[in-house]
Design goal:
Strand order of the largest sheet: 4-10-9-8-7-5-6
EC number: 2.6.1.19, 2.6.1.22
Number of helices: 13
CATH architecture of the largest domain: 3-Layer(aba) Sandwich
Bound molecules: pyridoxal-5'-phosphate
Shape: globular
Order of helices and strands: HEEEHHHEHEHEHEHEEEHHHEEHEEEH
Oligomer: single chain
CATH topology of the largest domain: Aspartate Aminotransferase, domain 2
Pathway: Amino-acid degradation; 4-aminobutanoate degradation
Cofactor: pyridoxal 5'-phosphate
Catalytic activity: 4-aminobutanoate + 2-oxoglutarate = succinate semialdehyde + L-glutamate; (S)-3-amino-2-methylpropanoate + 2-oxoglutarate = 2-methyl-3-oxopropanoate + L-glutamate
Strand content: 15-25%
Distance between the termini: 37 Å
Family: Belongs to the class-III pyridoxal-phosphate-dependent aminotransferase family.
CATH class of the largest domain: Alpha Beta
Structural class: alpha/beta
Amino acid sequence: MSAIPQERRVVTAIPGPKSQELQARRLSAVAGGVGSVLPVFTARADGGIIEDVDGNRLIDFGSGIAVTTVGASAEAVVRRASAQLADFTHTCFMVTPYEGYVEVCEALAELTPGDHAKKSALFNSGAEAVENAVKIARAYTKRQAVVVFDHGYHGRTNLTMALTAKNMPYKNGFGPFAPEVYRVPVAYGYRWPTGPDNCGPEAAAQAVDQITKQIGPDNVAAIIIEPVLGEGGFIEPAKGFLPAVARFARDNGIVFVADEIQSGFCRTGQWFACEDEGIVPDLITTAKGIAGGLPLSAVTGRAEIMDAAHAGGLGGTYGGNPVACAGALGAIETMREQDLNGKARRIEEVMKRRLSAMAEKFDVIGDIRGRGAMIAIELVKDRATKEPDAGAAGALARACHAESVLVLTCGTYGNVLRFLPPLVIGEDLLNEGLDVIETALAAV
Ligand SMILES: *Cc1c(COP(=O)(O)O)cnc(C)c1O
């Protein structure tokens, strides 16, 4: 049962007076480099609703960027994390270990694709997981080069900024970046020059050709890809692309890493998005949805690769914190018991049906894509030229925010409106959120 009424409510301007007061304090105390999509200050959140300090209730189509898949105060997460909090908050797993860490690694071995022997290591953030995947792949292959893709996003630390494609806001002015990172094309069907039909094989051939000619496969430690690209614009690589790249990696002794930090844990209607084309990655990075909002991330993969790093070579003071591990076990329990994969597929059905109807009325919608509860519309000034319309994405987001519906934008061109509702959202709220989006589309 949700503690907060699952109803949209607008009682003040958004942001309201209390939020504005807090925002003024924030502006003088918090570094300017840390932004916020919408400066309404949160009082409580649960199910599909975020309640702000002025009493407004927002329909949540963001899940704190794909994190609160099970809701922001899921019963099992709160119960397990509270019990752990009362027992002990920290020992450091590298000093004296505890069972929760081991249990999370066992669950990851069971849930991730492939029936080979697997091991995991736990960390705090997505970027840290990606960095560690690179460390592990380099230790295993004794090679240095890392291949990433156009429109890819992997984090904000020095190495993961290098792995990330987009300059603003992630990289601008923050160089120099880590060396031995190479970027190749991805199968972005909507914008592929010869159209979407042959995009998968054509893009794979280009990627393989560039790796072969420019780097040399024998120098490549890892190929890292998001099976559905997140920040880059919810791009599903065209069919055939991921299997071809994974095959190339296998044939050349390259560690294939699926970055499922945004797409994993039921978000796309499967435990992991790479299952869609039967991909079995060597390593998989997870974070965001893993622990119901508590900070936790993981690298999971083939035991022989995971064991390549020397003892003491991996870790960190807080990695796999016991409260976060308890939260993860609660989140996984919720995903299983409430069939959140099924819920995600139902959300896709409802959203795609409604958005397709909107696309018939509004030419600004150039493309509708994504899977499960990871759905986006790409906005264009002209359907023929596909000229990106970032202004429309911003205006639509603002119009939705004013009506108490929280949506996010993304995309290399800033012209994608993305929808990431908690998977536990009620269907009435989902439809009401879509009603608000439709009204906003008519107004913009
Ligand atoms: C969010 C994200 C990251 C970075 O995770 P943080 O926890 O913000 O460090 C890495 N990869 C992908 C695909 C992401 O969506």
